[in-house]
Amino acid sequence: MGTRTLRRLAAAGACAAVLGLAPAGVALETAEAAGCSVTWGSLPEVDRTFTPNDIEQVRTGRHACFDRLVLDLDRRGVGYDVRYGTVHAPGSGSVVPLRGAADIEVDVAAWGRSFRVGALADVSGYDTFRQVRFAGTFEGRTTIGLGVRARLPMRVFELDGPGTGSRLVIDVAHRW
């Protein structure tokens, strides 16, 4: 194909997009990307609250603009320190290897007694998450390693419920 043909194809594609004639997948992808602007960053997220807690369940979810990690807790008010960097096993300090180009250490002021060291969730097929791994519990603090595709924006927040419990939510965006 010559340069002239490529220019004509590009111009025709641009006109089709403007007129709403572009293939559905292209229009959907463009609309989705436009709706995914985030104002989050990649700096540490810390809350020094301490309420004795137990982690009851660890869940993950896929969303249009981000992947989500949820820790279900038995009480409200949890302290956390979530940051990019090397993940260490609590107590021993051993490095916890993770899949992905960047690691997020999720340190929570809660017991994780019912979990075993190793994979916590199957995140194959996720856009951003590469691995969720339980690193251990020591002296009332639990560490979870989150391997991600790259250093991307994240946000951390707590939601009340269900009942007297709460949920610690960590979202990692698919792109900047």
UniProtKB/TrEMBL annotation:
Pfam families: AMIN-like. Residues 1-24 form the signal peptide. The keyword Signal applies. InterPro entries: AMIN-like (IPR056303). Residues 55-174 form the AMIN-like domain. Keywords: Signal. The keyword Signal applies. This is AMIN-like domain-containing protein. It comes from Desertihabitans brevis.
